Amino acid sequence: MFFSHNLIDIAGGVIRNPLVRLSAPIDFILAAGEHVAVVGPNGAGKSLFMDVLTGKQLLKKGTIKYDFSPSPDNTVYNNIKYIAFRDSYGASDANYYYQQRWNAHDQDDIPSVKDLLGETNDTELQRELFHLFQIEPLLDKKIIHLSGGELRKFQLTKTLLSAPRVLIMDNPFIGLDAATRDLLHELLQRLTGMPDLQIVLVLSALQDVPPYITHVVPVDKLQVGRKLPREEYLAAFYLDNTLFPAEEIRRRIIALPYDSVSYDSDEIVKLNKVSIRYGKRTILKELDWTVRRGEKWALGGGNGAGKSTLLSLVCADNPQSYACDISLFGRKRGTGESIWEIKRHIGYVSPEM
């Protein structure tokens, strides 16, 4: 395949700040027509590498050159757009907090999708993106009411309206169910066919490298590896099971003791005909659910099905729980307990936090 020019060319790059340097100089080229996955475990140095690409971290040694032609503007700010999906809202707005979606009284000033997308002069591009990501039905929704898949569509639309040359997405598949992941893969596949747009995915899991990626850059132990064609990289590393200790981690988590507790009830969670509604929308309807000591449950369902709402009742985040027949750790909600008395028994890890 012939690539006409290099959009980004880093040669011997050493970060100026000595407190956050990588362990070896960076040598990296992003050529026109390439779509790259940057893959490595948490803490490997991927985000620091992206900070160099986007100009957030300046170089002490080496060079970095940009050529965003045919764009008439060669500035990094206008041509490289970065979206980090470290939480449910992506980069939509850092001023929201997790429990806010459950507190109706604290939503008056929350903007809608239409408000955040704003106006654009390129109505043809807007029309194309709205059709591609099915944005029209979402325009009047408040941003904190979007599901994980809807948030990805919103963020991609908002970013692509600025017509960047390079789109960097950090953990784009985090927190998505299988169906929404497949949809996002389909959308990204179509984006790779757009003229003058390069995709860079930052991933922690090797199995997340999709077929439309042309090259892979491994990052490990604060060192940026050599860029490899996707097939060559997968052939070399995919069968190495030492890269995937996830099953062992799950086994150890499940084996953690649960008998050293300060409550006596055998029923950890008990919901009796619980219904949750927001306006005309019913999220949960007359749900009965009991979780007993020692049981291990999996909640399954698509994005927007009500899993987060159900967990908000268990974790004492949803104020509607006071109007429902709910007991947690043997104590009925609304009998004088604080949310912290409940939360002290719960460990919670979620991309929405």
TrEMBL record:
Pfam families documented for this protein: ABC_tran (PF00005)
Keywords: ATP-binding, Nucleotide-binding
Start and end residues of each ABC transporter domain: 5-246
Molecular function per GO: ATP binding; ATP hydrolysis activity
TM region positions: none
Position of the signal peptide: none
PANTHER family for the chain: SKFA PEPTIDE EXPORT ATP-BINDING PROTEIN SKFE
Protein name, per record: ABC transporter ATP-binding protein
Gene source species: termite gut metagenome
